[in-house]
Design a protein that fits this description.
This protein has 453 residues and is of the alpha/beta class. It is built from twelve helices and 25 strands. The radius of gyration is 22 Å and the shape is globular. The N and C termini lie close together (11 Å).
């Protein structure tokens, strides 16, 4: 039996996955939500006074974001699993060079934060992050008066952000975007700008649930927001006026994107039971408040005995059927990776759409999924927005041989976690570069080991 509890640097590479021979019954607490941690760090850094962030995610993405905010003038100290952040009261007193590694959300948030710095800031990232687009957000910030220069290549990191007296906020009309992360970044800094931020949406908002998550986090931090919906109940306008932002206490709930892999594991292994404590709620100044992270939507895809969703935990016991999927996953782009490996074990052809943002993630995830699912015998068709998966047993009798395969992860944490879960049901899978899970879930393999207990 492989020892999955070893430190990340000591795990075999590639890492063999042992198939499960019986159902499991476990309670797993994933680390704190990456999305909410990033948003809470920005708000705490901009606030007056000190904020307490309870059990935030400790991982590459979030640690680099916090380090970058401290480079600009915020202060952070850790007490156990909690961090206390002393904010700058709306304006960062320093500049500097910051590198956000592979983190798309941290890098895009930092470009917006750098526009509030008193000195020049250079925002950079990893070689992969340098290939990911940032022009949309830079253009939005420039329209509001920010001074931003591309250091090497137009539309890509690194960028140089210079102090500008003209950066006061104002109104923006935003059409279809590749990512919602820059919209979230604008809204997060809006309360620190003299003219605030008014964002009008002239097309359907990409990843609207993540923008909603941003607004929810801001409201829990005491920020007043005016929001309008159109006749179709889609977002029409969000307005944040300049206002005093005070330090607060915020408990970070477990990450729903990480929980998606445990839900998928239970769905793949019939009669298994999974429970995730306090996934649907978070702690705001001592009060539990319901919050729907986008990837909780993955629960709708599985056939379960009884779904439990309460203040204590979210969980279910799986049934034996594995019905094919036909769904729009635009509300849960990270969860779509887990759904794709579930589809590889379904009873027929599955089609998952709403995936256009996956092309510009840590890797081109649609292409990566197609490559690796083909290795295990699936027939895969892709478009810019969708993936269709025919499981091996539906078109190739030889696939029952289940030949050993090594899954390339492309240094993408989601690929590693997804195919590890598939390896529970499909023998012969090994994971290349298993330590890449450190990006969002450093303890993933230790929790993975619990499924065998």
């Amino acid at each position: 039996m492989i020892d999955y509890t070893l430190p990340l640097d000591e795990l075999p590479d590639p890492l063999p996955i042992e198939p499960l021979t019986k159902p499991f019954d476990v309670t797993i607490t994933p680390p704190g939500s990456k999305s909410i941690t990033c948003r809470a760090y920005v708000l705490a850094a901009l606030a007056e006074g000190e904020s307490k962030i309870i059990r935030p995610l400790r991982a590459d993405d979030t640690d680099k974001l916090l380090d970058a905010l401290c480079t600009l003038g915020a202060e952070a100290r850790w007490e156990g699993e909690d961090v206390f952040i002393k904010g700058v009261g709306g304006r960062f007193p320093r500049g500097g060079e910051v590198n956000l590694g592979d983190g798309g959300t941290p890098a895009r948030f930092m470009i917006a934060c750098a526009c509030l710095a008193a000195e020049t800031v250079v925002v950079d990232g990893s070689p992969r992050m340098r290939k990911r687009p940032v022009a949309e957000g830079v253009d939005m910030l420039q329209q509001l008066g920010a001074t931003i220069e591309y250091v090497e290549k137009e539309g890509r990191l690194p960028v140089r952000v210079l102090p500008s007296d003209d950066f006061k906020g104002g109104e923006l009309e935003i059409g279809k975007t590749q990512s919602s992360q820059f919209i979230s970044a604008l809204l997060l800094i809006g309360s620190s700008l003299p003219a605030g931020i008014t964002v009008r949406y002239i097309d359907h908002l990409t990843s609207s649930k993540y923008v909603k998550l941003t607004l929810t986090t801001m409201r829990k931090y005491g920020i007043k927001i005016g929001s309008l919906l159109n006749a179709d109940n889609h977002p029409k306008e969000d307005q944040v006026v300049m206002q005093r932002l005070r330090g607060s206490e915020l408990g970070i709930p477990p990450d729903a994107s990480s929980a998606a892999y445990w839900f998928t594991a239970a769905a793949l292994i019939p009669d298994s039971t999974i429970r995730i404590p306090q996934l649907g709620y978070w702690n705001v100044n001592g009060q539990l408040v319901e919050i729907a992270q986008p990837d909780i939507e993955i629960l709708k895809a599985f056939d379960v005995d009884e779904l439990l969703f309460n203040e204590e935990f979210v969980g279910f016991t799986s049934l034996s059927s594995k019905d094919a999927l036909s769904l729009d996953a635009s509300a849960m782009p990270d969860g779509a990776i887990a759904l794709s490996v579930y589809a590889a074990n379904a009873n027929n052809k599955s089609t998952i759409s709403g995936l256009h943002t996956l092309r510009i993630k840590e890797t081109d995830r649609i292409a990566a999924l197609a490559n690796e699912l083909t290795k295990i015998g699936c027939s895969v068709e892709t478009t810019d927005d969708s993936i269709s998966i025919v499981p091996p047993h539906r078109h190739d009798a030889r696939a029952t041989e289940e030949k050993p395969v090594i899954i390339e992860t492309y240094n993408d944490h989601r690929m590693a976690m997804a195919f590890a879960v598939l390896g529970l049901a499909r023998p012969g899978i090994s994971i290349r570069n298993p330590k890449c899970v450190a990006k969002s879930y450093p303890g993933f393999w230790k929790d993975f080991a619990r499924l065998y207990a």
